[in-house]
Structures are given as structure tokens and as C-alpha cells.
Amino acid sequence: MLKLIRITFHTGIQLSEHIDEECGLVVIDPVQFHQILLNLCTNSAQSIGDNHGKITVSLAKGDLKKQGKDWVVLSVSDNGEGIPPEYQERIFEPFFTTKEKEQGTGMGLAIVHGIVVRCGGYIDVDSAVGKGTTFRLCFPCVESEKAALKGGVSTGVLGGNERVIVVDDQEAVLKVMKKILKTIGYRVTTCSSGQEALKLFSWNPDGFDLIITDYAMPVLSGLELCAEVKKQRKNMPVILSTGYGEKFSDTELQSAGFSAWLTKPVALQKLAMTVRGVLDHHN
Questions:
Q1: 158 in a domain, yes or no?
Q2: Which residue has the higher pLDDT, 181 or 68?
Q3: Which residues, in sequence order, are bridge partners of residue 76?
Q4: CA 159 to chain CA mean position, Å
């Protein structure tokens, strides 16, 4: 997951990791663990902004016993702008955010908090304005792998196992989006052109759950691909992926048959939330 996160940062951000592979075992859905990392690292990167900065992710044994238990501690630290004291008590509230509208919904840390609490854990936060922030997520250890399996796991709220076609004429974009979506559980097929995607879809219109398509492609554009797909399956959800220079109103998107749109390069959190939201809406 850290490899995927690293390639979405600008070159001025250094991401380092310190992982103790003997830190202990915890019960958590891997998709939810990925979601935690995604949210915290994205927040750290946004805190650093366009500046040079460093994010450090560590996984280690807890220093002290608490409640008669051993703990595994996941820490995410950055040297970004920090969190003002008056906001620190509210950061885990749903919909509370100090970011611009396009940068966040205020749900990221609320989701992280909910996952940790459901695992029987807790979160400590240290932050100073102008110096940075450290989140320490503490998870209770289990005694053995057998106990972990017995505990079971819950379903990740932003992941899934649906079948997704990703269409883009840029190989690098296809590679990154496929890695992200596969990491959070989706079954992904990539196509490098609109014609290839249409041929694949036409062969089995009910064999896929979602299409994510680039807008500007030669021969068959994303708009044209969406129109052709809708002729064969009217309720097929399609997400439009565009460059920064291409702007559409919600009315234009809806009239063209799109369920949502993403701006490239897309952030991991935005991609995960948009895909899950569209699929849930159509189910």
C-alpha cells in the first residue's frame, strides 16, 4: 500500500517506513487497514502541500501495557503545517474539515476513528502548528494467528469485489488505477482504447459492474463510449476520468449518462470513495 501511496506524492515529499515484522498480531480487515493508511498519508501530504516535507510510517510494539493487553502501534508522522489546538478535539467529528471543498469531505478521520474503535483500539494525536503532526493508532494484540482468524474480520467500507473496466490511452494511468483498485479488492480489467473497451463490454454486457473511462481518446472518446454502452445496458454505471483542463457541469455529465467524474491525477482516497459511492448507488 505504501508503494501505491508514494507514487501519488509530488517529488518534494519523502515517504519513509519503519516496520517491525515481529510487532504482534491484530484482528483487522486488510482493506480497512489500507483505508487507514490512505486517509492518514493523504492528510499528511495535504498538510505539507507544495513544500518539501517528510512523512514517516511506522509499525511497532507498544511501549506499555494498557488494560492488561499488549498493543501494536501504527504511527503516521509529518512535518506539515500542523493542527491548531482549537481544532484538535474536533478532528474526528464527521463532516468537520478545515480543507477546501474539493480537498476533503470531513469524513476521512471519522472513518479512521471508527475502524480503530471497532477493533478495540484508540488513537493519540500530537500536533504543533508549523511543526507537524503524529497520529498513533493503538490496536490490541491477539495471542496467536489462530485467535486472529477466530476473531474474524468485517467488510471494508470503501473496498469491494465488483468487476471494473478501466479505459485510458495512457499506459501509466492504467497501471496506477489498476493497482489502486486491486489493492482495495476490485477485479479490474484494463483497456487502452474506447474500441477495445466497447468490444469487451459488448461480448458480455452483464459481466461487469462499472466502467471508468478517460475523456479524450482517439477514434472513440469517453463520451461516445458511454453512449454506446448505455444502448446495450441502460443502467450501467460509468465514471468519467478527465484532465485538469476539461470541465463539466453536473447537468452535462448526467445528460451524457455519467454517474460521476474524476480529475486526473486522481487521489487514492477520492478514487476509492467515488467508486464505492457509485456502485452502492446503483445496487
A1: no
A2: 181
A3: 57, 135
A4: 9
Question: Does residue 156 form part of some domain?
Answer: no
| 126 grid coordinates | 500530537
DSSP state of 155: -
Q: In whole angstroms, what is the distance from residue 156 CA to residue 34 CA?
A: 9
CA atoms within 13 Å, Cβ hemisphere of 208: 24
Q: At what angle do helices 268-282 and 171-183 cross, to 10 degrees?
A: 70
In this structure, the answer to whether residues 7 and 145 fall within a common structural domain is: yes
User: Mean pLDDT over all residues of the chain?
Assistant: 85
Q: What is the CATH number of the domain that holds 68?
A: 3.30.565.10
Question: Would you report the helix, strand and coil content of the chain in percent, each value rounded to 5?
Answer: 35, 25, 40
**Domain of 263, in residue numbers:** 163-282
Q: What is the pTM of this model?
A: 0.54
Say how many Å lie between the first and final Cα of the chain, rounded.
Answer: 28
